[in-house]
Amino acid sequence: MFHRLKNDFRLSIITLLGISGLVGITPFAVLRFMQGNLLAGVVDSAILGGIASSMAYAWLTGDTRRTGLAMAIISSYGAVVVGSIVGDPGLFWLYPCLVTTFFLVGPRIAVGINLSAILAMMVVGLAFSSQEQMWSFSTTAVVVSACAYVFAHRNHSQRRRLEQLATIDPLTGVKNRRSMDEELDVAAANAERSGLPYALVLLDIDHFKKINDEYGHGVGDDVLTELVALLESNTRRSDQLFRYGGEEFVLLLPGVDGVNLRAVMNNLQQVLRKYLKHPGGPVTASFGVALLGHGESVDSWLARADNALYTAKETGRDRIVYAEEVGQPMPEPVPRAAG
């Protein structure tokens, strides 16, 4: 449970705001019934039920977008109904709803929900004792929404930037190892479900340390960026490239095996031999390739490709070695227990 809350920002916000709403509204729902205001009590109870149901839906399905929208609508329009029933005391409930809407949905959708809720409160008019009160409330509500919009928009931009920094290699612009781990898990799950073949390629630039030592790290960085450019221009959109560390990269190739895989690899090797250069001459790379076995774990898959790469480096470099050809066949799936 705590792992999901830590790694799913939207779910954590929905859970926090949902619990806050349940704790804050429940005493008032009880008070309404005790005071004999059954209509207000029923409305409060309906809001509580909607919030609780939305939270449960988010936890069971993982669909936080629909849940956030549902909670935003329930809380905002619920506040409008409560304000229309109980008058002045109900007006205060709309303010926190105007702010939390921006945490539950995107800024533009939140603006639409907030403005329509404020307008609905004004059109109904039952919550106000005078025109002056209505316009004062509406003006302050719009100001609150505007401030919340600015904060939410800036927060959204910063979160996107942080996510990019956490998943993209700053030098080459390709995804980093953290992204690779997530994408390999997705690939393994998709292969198990659909039967689509996946090939994993580990490639390592030959004698890269020598390039750095003799020509400087600036030249080494240029070689890395040029390698990425060549690989991206000679692979499909569906293929994914990751920087594994240093001069090592991982290429994920969906939907290729057999003859097609060998054609792809031979082409990449020839492209690098022809176009990848540094001041001292051509630059080559070694490749370790492994096909994902049925039921195989990502760790095993990656390890077989890594061992194939090691073999390529140890037997002369500038080679393509397939895991299945060096005593590392795809493992047999582990049989599931009956029952």
Structural class: alpha+beta
What does the largest sheet look like? 5 strands, mixed
Helical segment count: 13
The gross shape turns out to be elongated
Q: Enumerate the spans where pLDDT stays under 50 for 5 or more consecutive residues.
A: 333-339
Report the order of strands and helices: HHHHHHHHHEHHEEHEEEHE
As for the number of domains, it is 2
Q: Tell me the strand order in the biggest sheet.
A: 2-3-1-6-7
Q: Estimate percent helicity.
A: 55-70%
Quaternary state of this entry equals single chain
Summarize the structure.
This protein is of the alpha+beta class and 339 residues long. The chain contains 13 helices and seven strands.
Note down, in words, how this protein is organized:
With about 350 residues, the protein is of the alpha+beta class. The protein has two domains: about 170 residues, no CATH class; about 150 residues, 2-Layer Sandwich (Alpha-Beta Plaits), CATH 3.30.70. Helices cover about 65% and strands about 10% of the residues. The chain has 13 helices and seven strands. The strands form two sheets. It has a five-stranded mixed sheet, with helices on both faces. A two-stranded antiparallel ribbon has the order 4-5. A hairpin with a 2-residue loop joins β2 and β3. α3 packs antiparallel against α4 and α7 runs antiparallel to α8. The longest helix has about 35 residues. The protein is elongated and about 85 Å long. The C terminus is likely disordered. Its EC number is 2.7.7.65. It comes from Marinobacter nauticus (strain ATCC 700491 / DSM 11845 / VT8). It catalyses: 2 GTP = 3',3'-c-di-GMP + 2 diphosphate. Keywords: Membrane, Transmembrane, Transmembrane helix. This is diguanylate cyclase.
